[in-house]
Write a structure and sequence with these properties.
The protein is mainly alpha-helical. It has one domain. The longest helix is centred in the last third of the chain and has 17 residues. It has a two-stranded parallel sheet with strand order 1-2. Helix content is 59%, strand content 8%. It is globular, with a radius of gyration of 11 Å.
Length: 51
Amino acid sequence: MASYVAPEIRDKFESLPINLKNCILERNVQLNNIYDLMHVLEDIVAEGEAE
């Protein structure tokens, strides 16, 4: 399954740093709205804090 970024939030996604975008896309996620994007970002932060 490839990651998907809905057109409605593509501008927000594209404003992120390239390393963060790559990290998100590697997770094979479906980003249909801003809440999906926020959830993935929260997961990344939580994983970073756990290290």
